[in-house]
Amino acid sequence: MKTKVVIGVCGSVAAIEIPRLIRRLRRKGIEVECVMSEAARKIIHPNVLEWASGNRVITEITGKVEHVRLCGVDGEANLLLICPATSNTISKIAHGIDDTAVTTFASTAMGSGMKIILTPAMHFSMYRNPFIAESIERLKKNGILIIEPRIEENKAKLPDIDEILKKVLEELKV
Ligand SMILES: Cc1cc2nc3c(=O)[nH]c(=O)nc-3n(C[C@H](O)[C@H](O)[C@H](O)COP(=O)(O)O)c2cc1C
User: Fold this and answer.
1) Which of 7, 22, 28, 86 yields a CA-CA distance of 20 to 30 A from 170?
2) Mean pLDDT of 85-111
3) Distance, CA 46 to ligand 1 centroid (Å)?
C-alpha cells in the first residue's frame, strides 16, 4: 500500500504554501489527503488542495468518519502533518479540545499513537505568548514533533518547504 500523509491545514496566511508542499510529496510517491479548518478555507480554497493532492478535501467530519478512516488505529495514513498550525489549533490540541475538523484529526491521531508533525506559523508576538509556548512544550512532551519556525520580520514563519519535506521523509523512513 502507498505511504499516505494527511495534512491538517489551519487558518494562517502560510496556507498558501501548502499546494507546493503537496506536489513535492506526491513527486516522492506519497499520497496526500488534506483536512482544513473553517479559518483555513477563508484563506485558500479547498479546490486548490484538491487539485494538488488529487483527493477530495475534508472540510467537516461526516458519517464516513474520515478521522477514523485515516488516523484511527490501523488507519490508512502513516503520518499527520499539521501545517501551518495556528496558535488557536496548537492551544486546542495541547488541551485535548476538539471542535474543528483539524483538531478532530489531531485528537484521533494522538489516541492511536500515529506520528504527528506540527509546524507553527504566526506573528512573533503570538508565538511569544506564554500560553502558546507552554502548549508547544506540552505537545513535544507528548511525542509531537515540532518543526521550529524561522523568526524573521517579527514573524514566526513556516520553514522552507524543503526542510518540511526532509523532516516528513525522515519520519516516514522513505
Ligand atoms: C489573513 C489571515 C492570516 C492569518 N494568519 C495567521 C497565522 O499565521 N497564524 C495564526 O495563528 N493565526 C492566523 N490568523 C488567525 C486565525 O485564522 C484565527 O485565529 C482562526 O481562529 C484560526 O482557526 P483554526 O486554528 O481553526 O484554523 C490569520 C487570519 C487571517 C484572516
Assistant:
1) 86
2) 98
3) 16
- Domain 4-172: CATH superfamily, name plus number: Flavin prenyltransferase-like (3.40.50.1950)
**11 pocket-lining for ligand 1 (C-beta < 6 Å):** yes
User: Is 3 near ligand 1, meaning CB less than 6 Å away?
Assistant: no
Q: SS3 of 173, please?
A: coil
How many angstroms does the Cα of residue 104 sit away from the middle of ligand 1? 18
Tell me the mean pLDDT in the region 1-23.
97
Q: Mean pLDDT over residues 146-162, rounded?
A: 97
Residue 174, pLDDT score: 82
Whole-number Å distance between alpha carbons of 47 and 100:
19
**Domain ranges in the chain?**
4-172
Whether residue 85 has pLDDT greater than 90: yes
